[in-house]
Design brief:
heterodimer; A: 117 residues; mainly beta; four-stranded antiparallel β-sheet; 11 strands; 53% strand; B: six-stranded mixed β-sheet; three-stranded antiparallel β-sheet
Chain lengths: 117, 109
């Protein structure tokens, strides 16, 4: 069964950092790319980042480029989103989702990030 | 990076058909057949219902139909049911290895 489980969400002050994890099961990170998508309270979906299955190709939305980075541990089947320079507008529910044919096929339950002083 | 344009709301009666539009540009919707649609009920995780413009994942009702013409994609829901009431999002691959969502359309039955 394909599953993605996010963790690491927390309350952090503006300018702070946080690392989110996306643990996957039922497939391997070397076989599928994975996206990060967020949803601010009461708002729509915003695509943030993508790592291809080869691990070498990573792309980011302009809103987070230069502040967020991605890495992975293939042995742990876990993807990470390192978020630096957090702003109040980064407050959201953060999802990871498996890519299939450039669509967001399977989603995790999400983890909440709150940026507030 | 501006998003795709969807109507804020669409309504219909049970049994009717409704269509939700999703307008982009030649750099996304019009340039690639990688348009997808998601259904999100309040407090729930988004669910993929259409990918590659018109393909339905296994288990998705045949009442959902996707299409595209030029820079505009459309989702048609036929035989509207109470359970269809929620928010629908379109998404597209965009040139330069980016992805973009629409703002969402709230469907009222």
């Amino acid at each position: 069964q394909v599953q993605l489980v996010e963790s690491g969400g927390d309350v952090v002050q503006p300018g702070g950092s946080l690392r989110l994890s996306c643990a996957v099961s039922g497939f391997t990170l070397t076989s599928y790319g994975v996206h990060w998508v967020r949803q601010a309270p009461g708002q729509g979906l915003e695509w943030l980042a993508f790592m291809r299955n080869d691990g070498s190709h990573k792309v980011f939305a302009d809103s987070v480029k230069g502040r967020f980075t991605m890495s992975r541990d293939v042995s742990m089947n876990t993807l990470y989103l390192q978020m630096n320079g957090l702003r109040p507008e980064d407050t959201a529910l953060y999802y990871c989702a498996r890519d299939v044919s450039d669509a967001f096929e399977v989603w995790g339950q999400g983890t909440v990030v709150t940026v507030s002083s | 990076q501006s998003g795709l344009t969807q109507p804020a709301s669409v309504s219909g009666s049970p049994g009717q058909s409704i269509t939700i539009s999703c307008t982009g540009t030649s750099s996304d919707v019009g340039g690639y057949d990688y348009v997808s649609w998601y259904q999100q009920h309040p407090g729930r995780v988004p669910k993929l219902i259409i990918f590659d413009v018109a393909q339905r994942p296994s288990g998705v009702s045949t009442r959902f139909f996707g299409s595209k013409s030029g820079n505009t994609a459309s989702l048609t829901i036929s035989g509207l049911q109470a359970e269809d009431e929620c928010t629908y999002y379109c998404a597209s691959y965009r040139r330069s290895n980016l992805w973009v969502f629409g703002g969402g359309t709230k469907v009222t039955v």
